[in-house]
Backbone:
């Protein structure tokens, strides 16, 4: 059976480290700890004293001061691995974790998972051909010698690199290595760890090369594993669930993320908030539990994008310089239908076409495949339509040779609506409010990728109030603006009330408005 030796690099919060070590060794696994020399001798002694009676705990053979992006992180990892390899002879796997990582599965599940597949889990992509590095320097990480830390000696870091470039003082990558890059959160088999340690003792040239590369913790182990292990025995992924915001910062998890985390196809998660005491307690209890089954739905990243993309007034699509000079035209009138249930709006618009000669376009800012005329390629991209919204709609007015046109917009497009209302043209809006049953909300969550068929019922039940609140928030935003020529029809209002709204919105007779409402299944799901 698999026995895991966890490799922990940490630098603060002795109490949390002691608790983490106790949790991870509670089911018979091991842990080897490197506490940064910058953290102080007193804090380190506190940790050692608290864990002295735990035979499943050991400490790195040497403590050093670590710096972000520097070789010291790799060296500290090697010292910690050496201690674990020597102290825990029956450890089958070595798993890299940080102080803010926590298990999101049971130890039983982890052991079974690792036993089923004799492989190493490490993210490793070709350094030069992949696009893993999104911003900043790339090949410069390797071909120049980095003697200064970019975070603590920024001027020296870039001055040194510029000087090497000017003097053409480049160096060659070790010829027998294919340079790889990926996440530092790996899980490697004992045999692979032994090969790495042996390689570092024999190939001092390679170690010397990596000592002066930049951010070697993203390249050292990734390159060596690919060099030493057959590709068929490597799984190009991490077993630790982590996400980054659109600002490049790690997403932090809190107490209410429990259901989402345990349903992801990962063994650990990072980063857990230090204040998420309930989450830590629940995950700690889960780790030692027996006979727990997990429904893996893996909607974590799409859920995060959904939750963080809502509720920010003015958060996106601020007016661009090219839009400030564009207008739909002073004498034109844009009619907007906004409805969260797109199928209801489409049925309604189909009836509008029967009673008017308006060109009607359905959700042109929301659906990639909305039927549209050929306008030189801009119609093929949702991003282009939204980015050049006024120019795009003006082109549609010109194409249809009309001064009146109707479009559908999702209520979440609050910024789009505001932009059109700010234009010199006339804007009218019909806001359609529907009832949302739990079944509809669940179906909506699955349609937009927030949940899957395997999403646990408990996780889905926790998600539905958030979706309902989000829909209500969008409707409140629209109503609170006091737009001119703004009309509302509701699923539970009388036909007379809804007909009056439609008649005023379209400038048609009440008789025609009632005919529109007589269409069968208008609000049906």
Residues:
């Amino acid at each position: 059976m698999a026995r895991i030796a966890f490799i922990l690099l940490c630098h603060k919060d002795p109490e949390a480290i002691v608790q983490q070590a106790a949790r991870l060794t509670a089911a018979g696994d091991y842990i080897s700890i490197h506490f940064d020399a910058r953290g102080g001798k007193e804090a380190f002694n506190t940790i050692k004293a608290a864990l002295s009676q735990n035979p499943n705990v050991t400490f790195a053979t040497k403590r050093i001061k670590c710096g972000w992006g520097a070789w010291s992180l790799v060296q500290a990892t090697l010292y910690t691995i050496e201690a674990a390899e020597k102290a825990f002879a029956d450890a089958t796997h070595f798993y890299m974790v940080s102080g803010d990582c926590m298990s999101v599965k049971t130890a039983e599940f982890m052991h079974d998972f690792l036993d089923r597949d004799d492989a190493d889990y490490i993210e490793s992509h070709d350094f030069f051909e992949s696009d893993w590095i999104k911003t900043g320097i790339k090949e410069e990480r390797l071909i120049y010698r980095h003697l200064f830390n970019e975070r603590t000696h920024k001027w020296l870091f870039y001055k040194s690199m510029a000087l090497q470039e000017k003097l053409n003082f480049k160096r060659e990558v070790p010829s027998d290595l294919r340079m790889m890059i990926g996440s530092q959160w790996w899980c490697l088999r004992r045999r692979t760890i032994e090969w790495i340690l042996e390689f570092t003792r024999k190939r001092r040239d390679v170690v010397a090369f990596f000592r002066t590369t930049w951010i070697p913790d993203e390249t050292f182990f990734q390159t060596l594993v690919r060099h030493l292990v057959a590709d068929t025995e490597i799984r190009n992924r991490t077993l630790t669930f982590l996400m980054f915001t659109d600002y490049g910062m790690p997403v932090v998890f809190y107490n209410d993320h429990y259901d989402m985390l345990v349903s992801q196809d990962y063994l650990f998660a990072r980063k857990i908030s230090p204040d998420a005491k309930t989450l830590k307690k629940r995950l700690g209890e889960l780790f030692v539990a027996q006979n727990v089954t997990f429904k893996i739905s893996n909607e974590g990243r799409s859920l995060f994008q959904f939750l963080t993309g809502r509720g920010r007034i003015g958060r996106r699509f601020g007016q661009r310089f090219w839009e400030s000079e564009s207008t739909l035209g002073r004498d034109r009138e844009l009619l907007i239908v906004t409805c969260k249930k797109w199928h209801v709006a489409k049925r309604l618009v189909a009836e509008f076409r029967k009673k008017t000669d308006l060109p009607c376009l359905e959700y042109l800012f929301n659906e990639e495949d909305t039927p549209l005329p050929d306008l030189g390629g801009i119609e093929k991209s949702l991003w282009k339509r939204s980015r050049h919204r006024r120019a795009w709609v003006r082109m549609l007015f010109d194409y249809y040779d009309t001064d009146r046109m109707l479009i559908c917009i999702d209520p979440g497009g609050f910024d789009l609506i505001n932009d059109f209302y700010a234009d010199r043209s006339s804007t009218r809006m019909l806001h359609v409010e529907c009832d949302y049953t739990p079944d509809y909300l669940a179906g909506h969550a699955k349609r937009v990728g927030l949940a899957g068929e395997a999403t646990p019922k408990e996780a889905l039940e926790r998600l539905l109030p958030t979706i309902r609140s989000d829909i209500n928030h969008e409707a409140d935003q629209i109503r609170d603006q006091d737009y001119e020529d703004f009309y509302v029809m509701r699923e539970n209002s009388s036909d007379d009330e809804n007909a009056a709204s439609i008649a005023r919105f379209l400038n048609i007779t009440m008789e025609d408005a009632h005919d529109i409402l007589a269409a069968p299944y208008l609000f049906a799901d």
